[in-house]
Specification:
The chain is of the alpha+beta class. It has helices at about 5-25, 40-50, 135-140, and strands at about 55-65, 70-85, 85-95, 100, 105-110, 120-125, 150-155, 160-165, 170-180, 185-190, 195-205, 225-229.
């Protein structure tokens, strides 16, 4: 392997780790005990009732990650699938394909080969290692379960979720935008420590779509580098 190829390979591995870390910090946060009664605005109650009618969610996403300290902005698009209880699939299709998937017991993060001479890489964790309280709240619309936070109304269809200090990892606030007529969450803005901001826009949102359990399990291609954490 040439020095250039080695540097490219190292950079690829680092980028895979960073991608997994960004998604983890936003979607997979420490699950702490729920003890306080949360006052839920009327519109969010309607959203919760709408989501309760279905066991699945299927949507396209556009994610923009702003990292001011590094002077970097990264945009990605793909598909997001959710199925009760605790199953999800975050499939990034552009610009750098990757798949983050969980069957409720394990979590897999797969990135395909950087070029034809490389193998793909998969990072595997137990779901108990990385709990998903905030992710479940936002994808299932279950605001009544997210009791370790405050909710402030910003506009008719926009709300600010403020988790208690230490309950949600690096996330300081989450701003959500509601499609009022359809009672769906269509945008989420995560503000994190270090002034990092992650924006997730959802489109073509479908509740109740039939999603096979096989979509929430991952078997890597032969030769894939496997990392178990």
């Amino acid at each position: 392997m040439t020095l250039r190829a080695l540097n490219t390979s190292i950079a690829s591995i680092v980028q895979k780790k960073i991608s997994f870390l960004i998604i983890s910090l936003v979607l997979f946060l420490p699950l702490t005990s729920l003890s306080k009664q949360l006052k839920i605005p009327a519109l969010l109650k309607q959203v919760e009732e709408n989501y309760k009618q279905s066991n699945t969610l299927f949507t396209k996403f556009k994610q923009t990650v702003d990292q001011p300290l590094l002077k970097k902005t990264k945009t990605s698009t793909g598909l997001l699938l959710f199925k009760r209880p605790g199953k999800f699939r975050w499939e990034t299709r552009s610009p750098e394909p990757s798949i983050l998937v969980s069957d409720g017991k394990k979590i897999w993060f797969y990135t395909p080969p950087f070029d034809k001479d490389e193998h793909g890489q998969i990072i595997e964790k137990k779901s108990t290692q990385v709990q998903s309280a905030l992710m479940n709240t936002l994808l299932s619309g279950s605001f009544s379960l997210a009791k370790l936070m405050k909710i402030k109304k910003l506009k008719r269809n926009m709300f600010l979720l403020i988790p208690e200090l230490g309950s949600s990892g690096s996330v300081q606030t989450v701003e959500i935008e509601i499609n009022v007529s359809k009672k769906l969450i269509q945008k989420m803005i995560f503000k994190q420590t270090g002034d990092n901001i992650t924006k997730i826009d959802l489109s073509e949102i479908t509740l109740g779509k039939k999603l096979e359990d096989s979509l929430f399990h991952f078997i890597p291609p032969p030769g894939t580098e496997r990392i178990v954490e």
